[in-house]
Every structure is written in structure tokens, then in C-alpha cells.
Amino acid sequence: MKAKKSLGQNFLIDTAVVDKIIEAGEIYSDDNVLEIGPGRGFLTKALVRRSKKVLAIEKDEELARFCRNSLRADNLEILTGDVLDTNWKEVLNQRDFLAFKVIANIPYYITGKILRLFLENSFQPQILVLMVQKEVAERICAKPGKLGILSLSVQYFGEPEIVTIVPREKFEPAPDVDSAVIKIVIKKEGRLELEAEKKFFRLIKVGFSSPRKTLVNNLSVGLDLKKKVVEKILIKIGFKGTTRAQELGVEDWIKMIEYF
Ligand code: SAM
Question: Ligand 1 test: best mutation among 105, 109, 172, most atoms within 8 Å of CB?
Fold first, then answer.
């Protein structure tokens, strides 16, 4: 079977990386796992051995058929379809996946959409373990000073960490970039009410509208407030007039939504 570039098919060929993914997912015999893009089943095989049930979704019909025929396990179900077009609330409910973990070595061009799909919803997994482009992993896991909209959005819902860097030679065919496995443990508490959550994301967007400018500048332009007023509020909350958006963590932005 020839790898299809259009579906981001770069297959893992290193068992040590598989072991690290399983360990990061904290996969045990009572766990339900949702695997996105099983491909030729290299990772799926290990997941099936370790977990209670694996539900996998593969867009490529030929590969889905191949996996069904070659893996044949009672605790494996492979759906043919696009992860982004699936009604997950319904699919997960039908299978009693009340708690589940997402494991995915996905095409890089859908990383953002997968994150939104499984973070910004009521059917959040307990843990997500994703293979992503190395630079994207670093952006997601960034610390204050280097934070951005992507890192804050993920860090609001969960605690991300880089598990391991995966050089391009660990795939067949080798992609043009290096990768990293990231683990995101979903926070059980701390999610805001719907309106406050919307405000949180709106404020972040405004705060980062011109990344080179100060927060005072961005907020005063974006919220149509006088600079002096914005500065006064920032100082009141404990920041400086020169503070930049990338220096503030999730808790800082939550503090700010009370005032803006
Ligand atoms: N998990 C396998 C591995 O580790 O070797 C394959 C990884 S490969 C990078 C990504 C897989 O996701 C491919 O099998 C591809 O066909 C599948 N895929 C691509 N887009 C998809 C989508 N929107 N929904 C479901 N599967 C998709």
C-alpha cells in the first residue's frame, strides 16, 4: 500500500516511540481509547493489547479494511470516516465511552482542528496524546514570556507537556519536519461559565491583536478604551503598563475578564 501524501500518511516505524505514547496515555486494562488515524495499525496493535476497548477512525477506506483484517481483536472497532465530520457525542454515547483517552498520530494540517474538537466540548477525553510538528509542540507547551493564543487556549483546558521529540527518520515515508509527542491532561476543574469563557477567549484575541505592541495598546484599541484607563486597571491587578500579552498565563487572563 502506497502512502497517500494527501492524507498525511507518514507511518511510525519505531516501537520505542509507541511505548512512549502508551506510557504517556496511562493506558490500562479498564481504559477506553479513541485512536485517530490508525493507518497500518502499528500503534493500534499495542493499544488493543493494553486497553479495554479501542475505537479507531480512519479516513482511508483501504487502510481501515487492512486494519480490520490484519488486527482482528474483540476489543477493536474501526470506523471508516473523517474524524472532523463525525458526531462524536453520539458515537461515544452509543458505546458507553463516558471516560476515554484520545491517542492520535494525525496529519499535521488538522492538529488545530483536532484540538478544538476535543477540548472545546462537553465530551472531553481524560488525556490526549498527540503527535504534532515539533515547533507546534513547543508553542502549545510555551511558558510565560512566550505564550500565544494557541498555548493559552490549550492551557486553559488542560496541562500540556512534551513527552518526547520524534526525529523524521522514525516515520516511513519520512516527513519534511521533526515531530513531538505531546500529552495533555484535561483539567477537572477551573472551567469558566459559558459567557465568561467566551469573554476570556475574546480578550485574549484582542490582547494579541498586534503581538509587538504592549497589552495596554492592544486592549485600548480593541476595546475602545482610553490608554490611561487600561493602564490603571492593569496596575490594579498587579501588572505593569509595559506588560506584553505573551507574559501572561491563563490565571492572569481570567483575573482580567472581571475588569474588561
Ligand atoms: N497511526 C498510524 C501510525 O502511527 O503509523 C498512521 C499515522 S499517519 C501520520 C495519519 C493517519 O491518519 C493516516 O492513516 C491517514 O489516512 C489518517 N487520516 C488522515 N486524515 C484523517 C481524518 N480526517 N480522519 C481520520 N483519519 C485521517
Answer: 105
Predicted pLDDT at 212: 84
The CATH number covering residue 200 comes to 1.10.8.100
State in Å: Cα 7 to ligand 1 middle: 7
Give the tens place of pLDDT for each residue, 223-234: 999 999 999 999
Cβ atoms within 10 Å of 170's Cβ, excluding its own:
19
Please tell me the residue having the least CA distance from ligand 1 atom 19: 7
| Tens digit of each residue's pLDDT (9 = 90 or more) over 32-54 | 999 999 999 999 999 999 999 99
Question: Residue 122's pLDDT band (boundaries 50, 70, 90)?
Answer: confident
How many whole angstroms from 8 Cα to the centroid of ligand 1? 7
Residues 198 and 173 in one domain: no
| 210, 178: one domain | no
Domain residue limits at 163: 5-186
- Domain boundary among the residues 163, 186, 209 is at 186
User: Rounded distance, CA 114 to CA 247, Å?
Assistant: 26
For residue 40, report the distance from its CA to the centre of ligand 1, in Å.
9
Percent of the chain whose pLDDT exceeds 70: 100
Count of structural domains within the chain: 2
Local structure of residue 191 (DSSP, 8 states): P
Using a 10 angstrom Cβ sphere, with 0-12 exposed, 13-18 middle and 19 or more buried, the burial of residue 72 is exposed
